[in-house]
Amino acid sequence: MSSRDTILQRLRNRSGGELVIPDCDFSVLQRPLSSVAERIDQFEKTIESVHGEVHRCTRESWIARLAGILSCRGARNLLVPAAHQIGRALRDSGRDDLPELLIYDEPIGSWQPHLFNEVDASITSTRGGIAETGSLILWPTPDEPRLMSLVPPIHIAVLEASGLYSTFHEAMHEQNWASGMPTNALLVSGPSKTADIEQTLAYGVHGPKELIVLVVE
User: Fold this and answer.
1) Which of these, 85, 55, 59, 51, lies nearest to 69 by C-alpha position?
2) Confidence (pTM)
């Protein structure tokens, strides 16, 4: 008998029989059904409480809204994905009120100085959002590496309103995370923050100083 079998046998003898594993009960994580509008309201309230910024727009107006946001902040450039439809839409828009569009298409070793010192803003897609915690779900890809959302001073995320979930558990269940996940997944709730200095919460110390979410309804 192996050591494992010996230990299990002792546990069985102590408990009086075979080990019984209880069924998982996730009822405590369930929330009442809510409408998309209610989830947007909750998401906006929660993420703005930690210095995030939400702009509601439509599929036809989000680029114009983005241009206005970047213009107000004096952004000189915007890092966009090369293949994702967000990047394609921006490059094909023909707008002259957008800043210079950059593409992260080089190895990080050669691009790192430019990324860390010269990029003013970046825009990424999202896999969804969590209304209860005011969080964005990001699954980095070669087209949208994680540094796009972690380095530039301004991170702009495009969130489809239909992709808002009430809870983290609901998002994992509905998107079937159990079937496979990327090597790195991000939950982003507001701009960067830390309390390492005298236990005082400070924003924008490392990472984006601003998180701006365009909710496309």
Assistant:
1) 55
2) 0.83
